[in-house]
Write a structure and sequence with these properties.
The protein has 110 residues and is mainly α. The protein has one domain. Helices cover 75% and strands 0% of the residues. It contains 5 helices and no strands. Helix 2 packs antiparallel against helix 3. The longest helix is centred in the middle third of the chain and has 21 residues. The N and C termini lie far apart (68 Å). About 12% of the residues have low confidence.
C-alpha cells in the first residue's frame, strides 16, 4: 500500500508541473507584457506605414525595453504552441491587458 501512495504523490506532483514554464522561457506575466507590447507596436507600425526594417528594429526595441531576448520570447512561444490549450487562457488575459492599456491615461512625454 505504501508504494502506491508514494507513486500517487509523485504523479500528482508531476501533474502540477505540466503547465509550469520550462527553463529558458519567460514567466507568464513577462510574456504577456511583451506580447501586448508587440501587438501595439505592430499596430503603430501599420498605421505609420513602417517598412520591414523599421518594424524589425521596433520589435527588438520592445524586447530590450523589457529585458527579454529573442531566444526567450521564441522559446516561450514554442512552449505555448506545444499545447494550444495554453493559448486560450493567455488570449483572454491578453485581451484584458490590452483593454486596460487602452483605458489608461497616456503617459506624459518626457
Amino acid at each position: 500500500m505504501r508504494p502506491a501512495l508514494l507513486l500517487s504523490a509523485a504523479l500528482l506532483a508531476a501533474g502540477c508541473q505540466i503547465d509550469k514554464e520550462p527553463p529558458g522561457t519567460l514567466g507568464r506575466e513577462t510574456y504577456l507584457a511583451v506580447y501586448c507590447d508587440f501587438l501595439q507596436e505592430s499596430l503603430r507600425g501599420k498605421n505609420t506605414g513602417a517598412d520591414p526594417r523599421t518594424a524589425l528594429h521596433n520589435g527588438e526595441t520592445v524586447l530590450a525595453k523589457r529585458g527579454v531576448t529573442r531566444a526567450e520570447f521564441d522559446s516561450t512561444t514554442g512552449w505555448y504552441n506545444a499545447d494550444v490549450r495554453r493559448w486560450k487562457h493567455f488570449f483572454d488575459d491578453a485581451a484584458k491587458e490590452l483593454e486596460l492599456r487602452e483605458l489608461a491615461p497616456p503617459h506624459p512625454a518626457r
